[in-house]
Design a protein that fits this description.
Blueprint (H helix, E strand, L loop, with lengths): L6 H30 L3 H32 L8
């Protein structure tokens, strides 16, 4: 049985969702910059940033899902 979700816990879920969205935004930004970049060493750095942000997003999603399994399925689920 899931734990009861307090307002603070609901806020934590909301913060995770915002953080995940931020990682997705950063990925798109770095990807666009890499596509526009004509300097090969800088392009490689930007592509690395995309990979970093992708890993960050996945870690946040994994942790979010662990919270979800403990507290239940809040509205606006993230897969």
């Amino acid at each position: 049985m899931p734990k009861e979700m307090s307002e603070k816990t609901k806020r934590v879920f909301s913060i995770f969702k915002m953080a995940i969205a931020g990682e997705q935004t950063a990925q798109a930004m770095y990807k666009e910059a890499a596509e526009l970049c004509e300097d090969k060493p800088l392009k490689k750095i930007l592509e690395g940033f995309v990979q970093d942000e992708t890993r960050h997003e996945q870690e946040l999603v994994n942790r979010y899902n662990r919270l979800r399994s403990e507290y239940g399925d809040p509205a606006g689920d993230i897969k």
